[in-house]
Amino acid sequence: MNSVSGGDDRSILTLSSREVYRNHWMRLREDEILRSNGQKGIYGVVEKDDAAIILPIDKGRVWLVEQYRYTIEERALELPQGAWEMAIKDPEELARGELREELGLNAAKMIHLGTLWIAYGFTRQKQHVYLATGLTLTGKDPDDEEHDLTHRTVPVEEFEQMMLDGKVRDNCTVAAWGLYLMWKARQKQEQ
Question: Do residues 126 and 146 both lie within one domain?
Fold first, then answer.
């Protein structure tokens, strides 16, 4: 038996696993499991390659992207983010690439703020969070899925209000902002 968690604190064992579906962006598997209480069950897991989310801040303004998100059937405002559908060795390279693709920006400085799991109740995907500063325009290079992507810059205060008002509802964007605020507070303490 294999452990889903891989640690000694596991409470679920994998009895069997089968791939149900695969495409270029994701894999879906269904595992037969045994819980520590003796109950058997199934667990569906979506596996995706690592992603990056970038918090581009320049002169007190945050750069956002807006695009149609098919799963929620509406346009959404969020920080630039994405994956390259392959294993990555350097998350900063991925973050810089996504920043260039979606916003046409180059960052003089990239600071890794942390790594998060995206919706680990059903998805196995990490997201590397970067702060991008010292921004210069280089020209966008969107992929086919980003054909309708637009961008806007907003003052930090407006960005925070947009999250509070529900205009920005992407959990990855809100979590990235939380990491940034903690990082920023620690920077002030160290001075």
Answer: yes
Which pLDDT tens digits describe the chain residue by residue (191 residues)? 444 445 567 899 999 999 999 999 999 999 999 999 999 999 999 999 999 999 999 999 999 999 999 999 999 999 999 998 777 889 999 999 999 999 999 999 999 999 999 999 999 999 999 999 999 999 776 667 767 899 999 999 999 999 999 999 999 999 999 999 999 999 988 87
Distance (Å, whole) CA 90 – CA 180: 21
Using a cut of 0.85, tell me whether the model's pTM lies above it: yes
Question: Which CATH number do you get for residue 155?
Answer: 3.90.79.10
> Which DSSP string do the residues of 143-169 spell out, in sequence order?
-GGGTT-EEEEEEHHHHHHHHHTTS--
The reply to whether 142 and 123 lie within a common domain is yes
Domain count within the chain: 2
Residues 104 and 130 in one domain: yes
Say if residues 154 and 62 touch (Cβ distance below 8 Å): yes
Question: 113 and 78 in one domain?
Answer: yes
Spatial neighbors of 184 by CB under 8 A, at least 6 apart, are none
Can you give the residue range of the structural domain that contains 16?
A: 2-47
